[in-house]
Structure formats: C-alpha cells, structure tokens
Amino acid sequence: MTTIGFIGVGAMGRPMVERLLAAGHDVVVWGRTPEKLQPVVDAGARLAESPAALAAQADTVLGCLLDGPAIEEIYLGRLLEAARPGQLFADHGTYDPRIAEKVHAAFAEKGAHFVDAPVSGGPMGAEAGTLVCAAGGDAAAVELLRPIAAAYTGRIAHMGAAGRGLMLKLINNYHVSINFVAAAETAWLIERLGLDAQESMAILFGGFADSACLRMGLPKALAGEYEAGGMPLGGLVEVQRNIADLLESNGFASGLFPYARQVFANAAVTEADQHPSALVHWLPGVQE
Fold this sequence. Notes:
6-stranded parallel beta sheet, 9 strands, alpha/beta, N-(1-d-carboxylethyl)-l-norvaline Dehydrogenase, domain 2, about 15% strand
C-alpha cells in the first residue's frame, strides 16, 4: 500500500483525498486547522502533527495550496528539510511558474522530485475523478505521479520543465476569466431583452457558444444564485495577477483580459466569496 501525504484539504483537496482513500491508498493529512480535516479523517485518513512529520511518513507528498506564498512557506520552509532522495512532491495549486522553478531546484539539490501539477475541473471534477492536470518537471517524476493522480484525474499532460504546467494552467484561467465575464454579459442581455431563459440556454448550450463556463455561470446568473460552491470569484482575482505577469513578460497585450480582470476586481471588493455568476452585478454601466 502506498502512503500519500496531502496538504491543502480544502474545497478541491477534500474530494481528491477521498478518491485517494477509495483507491486504496494510505493517506496522511496535515492542516493549520485540524478540525477542518475531520471529514477526511472520518473517511480513513490519518492526521500528521506537522508537515515534516507528514513527509517522514509518506512515499509521495501531494498538495493543493492556495497561492505562491503558501507554496514557498510549506514546501521550502517546512517540507524541504524532511525530503528524502527519490521522494516525490507535487502540488496541484495555481501560482507563479517562477516559484515552481525555485522549488524544483531546491528539492533537486536533495535528490527529491518536485512537480508543478495544477488541475482544472473544479470540485465537481475532483469528486468525479475527471480533473485534467498539466504537469511541469522531470519526465520520470511525472511518470511517478500518473498512477497516483489517476484516482482523481482523467488526463495528465507533461508540458516540459518545471513551471510549464503552471504556464498552461494560467492560459486555462485566462480563458476562464474571460468566459465567466461573457456568461455574465449574456445573462444581462437575455434579461434586458426579455428572452425566455430556459429556451435561450437550450439554444446557447446546443451551438457554438457552448462552454463549461457558460454552463456554470449563465444558469446561476439568470436564477440569481451566487453561492460559490467551492468556486469563489476572489480565487480567480489572485490568479489573474499571475496571468497578467505571464502576458506582460511575453510581450502580449491582450485586448480582452484587462477588461475581464477589471470586472472581477470590481466584484471582489464586496463579493469575493460569491460564485462568478455574481459578476452580472458589476458589468460596466449596469452595477447595482
């Protein structure tokens, strides 16, 4: 039985841990607030008293941390000291690719592997085991990750060296940001024009306009439902800083992204914890 350590048992991490347990893995977890880990402990996970203790028990250490500062604090500040030669570390969060390069180099000095392995598909994809994962790092390390992450992913693509998985994930979230704003604008137009909501969605979902973001954002916006469901719009605001850095560092002046980013920023002032469907309140000229 493989022992997997997991740090970052949040909206995404919890169903990932549950699927690892269902696949027969021994799972050890750690978090700053132990009571938040109780659901996965009840499901069979064991609780470690520190990140270093978790790494000492685990064959592989996985994470799904919030952002770059958390990655540096946990991996460089608390896991690196416990890393063993040949041990695999991989994080499924989204952050600055340059941080992944830094962490990869630090773990390589100890003979350990670090893979940036951001996932997309949301909590529902984690629950269904259909997440997609773009991985950056050594090819051998990615191959070590594949059979483990198969518990909650439907596809893993090795994009190349450290940081390159995150580059593709930022491109993914570039699209997500723009498309959620488009979904909010679509909802506003349907309501303004007095079009039948159900018939409108049936047509839009059946043609070239269809997308995952439209299917998630449009029905909730039309129904006035803004509960995040594990996808708060404020989480994308943080990632959008990294997207902007990626675009700027590559000399690309997007005509779409700055507008979408501003809509998110406006909404996040008071509705950061809401679903992106709440963007409908913050479109230029139609704020409520």
